[in-house]
Amino acid sequence: MRQKLINMGALVFDEQAKGPHQNKIALYWEDEKGKQQNFTFHELYFLSNQFGNLLKNVGVKKGERVFFFLPRVPLVYYGFIGALKIGAIPGTLFAAFAPQALEERLKNSGAKILVTNKDLYSRVQKIEKNLPELKKVLLVENIQKLLAKTSVKLKVTKMKPEDPAFMLYTSATGNTPVCGIVIPHQAFPQQLATTRLVLNLKENDVYWCTADPGWITGVVYGILTPWACGATQIIYEGRFEAKKWYSLLEDYRVNIWYTAPTAIKMLKQAGETLIKNYNLSSLRFVYSVGEALNPTLIDWSLKYWGKPIYETYWQTETGAIMIANRPDQKIKPGSMGKSLPEIKAAIVDNKGKILPFNKKGNLAFKPGWDSMMVDVWRNKKRYQSYFRNGWYLTGDQAYQDKDGYFWFVGRDSDMIKTSGERVGAFEVESSLMEYPGIVEAGVIGKPDPLRGEIIKAFVVLQPSLRPSEALKKKLQEYVKTHLAGHAYPREIEFIDKLPKTRSGKIMRRFLKAKELGLPIGDTSTLEEF
User: Are residues 315 and 425 in the same domain?
Assistant: First the structure.
């Protein structure tokens, strides 16, 4: 039977641009200074075609890599789709990357074209001589003039389902080299199905995904699938600021909001009185991704927003949401939710044997789902390392209850072995955050000659609490009472903020390296700290 060809880029908004939605606003864009731009589906369709033709004009061929090193500007969104349409392999890079991080990723990918702006190009110039495969740098400041001279008619390149569509680099850890995760064109139907099933996105919705396009959520659920649903997106280029975020939710009458637990914690920290100044009645569903969601945040959102937060679980490597709390199912606060249809998830031991309910083990998926990565670029050994005994191993520890809900325990690398017992960093962090006045907590294992490791916690307080030895003792007793006698932090340090990636994940290895005086490793995805 002849293989059906596909192109992910053509599925994003080509149909919308030719149908009844063609003159509907697809994108509301706003920057930190208040500058605004709106784009219809028809306009984005033409712009993506023009960008695809522009790439062809500078010699880009099927399978060649095109990377975007830009803040959240409209060009990233329609340019990414234009690159997909011609069969190129687009990728994105955080605008905060320093020269070393850029060099590692651009060299490994063998990117032929880099799209950036004059300001960011100054960093690229420091490493350009080390990138022999980089043939051309396109500057945003010049692109608009070039597009104006480029045809709006584009012949889409048909691809095999398993052909690479795009690639994204995961954060390096320690001395581990960067990994370019390759997602195929066949991923799109599953990505779209999860957008409809989990995010409940409909054509009349206004949708805000706060994720940067430098990471997987910002690509799949920020560039690709929302427009295929016919929804209108808002994109805000500026940094987080509580008043601004609330005003965006109100002004654009956002219906579906996909964000990170870190952002929710920061909104909580900004105080409840602020919420009264804004009308959030348009908000239908709130979702989180990037880090496990503490149940206290769900309680808070119910109380002050009148909405629960639905947690979603997936990885760059899985290409789409795999486990989620969904609007059509009961939420168990603190759980990751249930696995999605056609996804076989399980908790297995190190030999691949499925463990009984409530037994902690490796969170794993049976390989073969459509959005699964097809390669780690130029690193087959690393790709193969994800699979063992017939399972894809996520690198996360979890357990499943009798109702089918999964509960996150911690990353394999964040498990702490103290006095012969294994404790998940996230478990301790969640327990600490239940204590009134605790904003955030980061937990590490610290070497100890007697116990192997002891638990150390770094704690961020609300202004209403003052650091003291008495408070440390209260926190220790709280964790002993509410979690386990062996799982309390023997050391507590109060700090102003935790180191996090730009996707909102606590960088526990950073805390550990600083504590022990070890090399910090790759900090290219670290927020300002």
Answer: no
Token output for 483: 């979690």
Q: What angle do CA 150, 155, 156 make, to 5 degrees?
A: 115
Token duo for residue 202: 């409909």
Q: Looking at residue 446, what is its pLDDT?
A: 86
User: Rg of the Cα trace of the chain?
Assistant: 23
Regions of the chain with pLDDT less than 50:
1, 172-175, 528-529
> Tell me, what DSSP letter sits at residue 420?
T
Please state, in angstroms and rounded to a whole number, the distance separating the CA atoms of residues 413 and 322. Answer: 21
Query: What pTM value is reported for the model?
Result: 0.85
How far does Cα 329 stand from its chain's mean position? 23
Three-state helix/strand/coil letters over 97-145: CCHHHHHHHHHHHCCCEEEECHHHHHHHHCCHHHCCCCCEEEEHHHHHH
Q: Count Cβ atoms below 10 Å from residue 356 Cβ, excluding itself.
A: 10
Q: What is the CB neighbour count within 10 angstroms for residue 108?
A: 19
Residue 337 counted as domain residue: yes
Residue span of the structural domain in which 317 resides: 10-342
234: number of CA atoms within 13 Å, CB side?
Answer: 24
Biggest alpha carbon–alpha carbon distance for the chain: 72
User: Identity (one letter) of the amino acid at 9?
Assistant: G
**Domain closes at, from 318, 342, 366:** 342
98 and 227 assigned to the same domain: yes
End-to-end CA distance of the chain: 56
Per-residue CA distances from 193 to 61, 221, 229, 246, 321 (Å): 30, 11, 10, 29, 10
Predicted confidence at residue 497, as pLDDT, reads 87
CA angle 384, 362, 359 (to 5 degrees): 160
Residue 55: partners with Cβ closer than 8 Å, 6 or more residues away: 66, 82, 83, 86, 88, 113
Residue 416 host element (H or E): strand 415-418
Helix (H, G, I), strand (E, B) or coil at 36: strand
